[in-house]
């Protein structure tokens, strides 16, 4: 397999790259490092890493021609500034269209689109099935949903994975790294009573192996552990995993206007279709995550939410 990964230096992309390299694939990573770090991937003879944007049509065409990928994982996304509507729309919608066009031109066998579960907006019911109406409410989720809805226009076989919160090595996005960094620095934290589901990276990579199979199913699938937890309870679990004691409980706030009260995906279709099920529980997953953070540190964190920046 010759795998091109857009956004390949980010948490998801870099873990996919390492996993694919270990299985003997040739990997090309394209990233602009807006929400990732240079040097995160160790050198490998079958790895090529290029700095650039998916909006650079000339660069994209040259890389597709030179590398001739058989498979593409489209993980690149803009989300770091909730008010950069134009930037989000260009990267997440136009950028997706550009990647699709190159896949069609080169005859790529399989295109995997990594989508946010925020595409569903405020859920009408939970767990959320894949046929739930789409009602994104943020610039990030609106533009990512626009990109997903482009996929059927192309000729390349595709799968869109609507993702729960995936955590693991090089995870600098969301509440887990934010809690870790602030707690290690002795800073006060706050949490919300919003509920989310969290999936460990190893479970996600197990699923991705099955999704990349050229003879596999196509379409849209939820990727989830099937269980949710409040962000406040997640904070308490992080405190336990880090082995620390706090003088007082964390301040719990209601979700902000750009957040969702609950987001639990129904993974049953994914489980039936790909013969897959999440196996790593939150307690064990957080133990692994804290151990990784303690070894490697957390230099910076990223979020699409306004309130979490406070």
Automatic annotation (TrEMBL):
Pathway(s): Bacterial outer membrane biogenesis; LPS O-antigen biosynthesis
Keywords for the protein's UniProt record, in alphabetical order: Plasmid
Pfam families reported in the protein's UniProt record: Epimerase (PF01370)
UniProt domain NAD-dependent epimerase/dehydratase: residue ranges: 4-223
Transmembrane segments: none
UniProt keyword Cell membrane, yes or no: no
Keyword Magnesium (UniProt): no
Family to which this protein belongs: Belongs to the NAD(P)-dependent epimerase/dehydratase family.
Protein name: Nucleotide sugar epimerase
Source organism of this protein record: Azospirillum humicireducens
């Amino acid at each position: 397999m010759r795998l091109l990964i857009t956004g390949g230096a980010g948490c998801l992309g870099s873990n996919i790259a390492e996993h694919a390299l270990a299985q003997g694939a040739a990997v090309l990573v394209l990233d602009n490092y807006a929400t990732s770090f240079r040097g995160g991937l160790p050198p490998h003879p079958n790895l090529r890493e290029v700095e650039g944007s998916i909006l650079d049509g000339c660069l994209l065409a040259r890389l597709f021609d030179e590398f001739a990928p058989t498979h593409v994982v489209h993980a690149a996304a803009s989300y770091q500034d909730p008010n950069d509507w134009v930037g989000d729309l260009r990267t997440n919608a136009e950028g997706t269209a550009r990647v699709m066009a190159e896949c069609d031109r080169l005859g790529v066998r399989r295109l995997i689109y990594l989508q946010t579960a925020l595409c569903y907006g405020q859920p009408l019911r939970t767990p959320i099935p894949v046929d739930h109406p789409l009602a994104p409410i943020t610039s990030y989720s609106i533009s990512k949903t626009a990109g997903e809805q482009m996929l059927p226009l192309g000729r390349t076989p595709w799968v869109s994975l609507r993702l729960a919160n995936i955590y693991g090595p090089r995870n600098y996005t969301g509440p887990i790294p934010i809690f870790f960094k602030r707690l290690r620095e002795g800073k006060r934290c706050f949490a919300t009573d919003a509920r989310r589901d969290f999936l460990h990276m190893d479970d996600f990579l197990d699923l991705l192996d099955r999704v990349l199979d050229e003879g596999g199913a196509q379409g849209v699938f939820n990727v989830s552990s099937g269980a949710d937890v409040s962000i406040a309870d997640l904070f308490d679990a992080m405190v336990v995993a880090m082995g620390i004691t706090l003088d007082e409980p964390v301040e719990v706030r209601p979700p902000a206007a750009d957040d969702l009260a609950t987001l639990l995906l129904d993974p049953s279709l994914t489980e039936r279709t790909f013969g897959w099920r999440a196996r790593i529980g939150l307690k064990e997953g957080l133990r692994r995550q804290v151990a990784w953070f303690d070894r490697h540190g957390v230099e910076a964190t990223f979020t699409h939410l306004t309130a979490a920046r406070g």
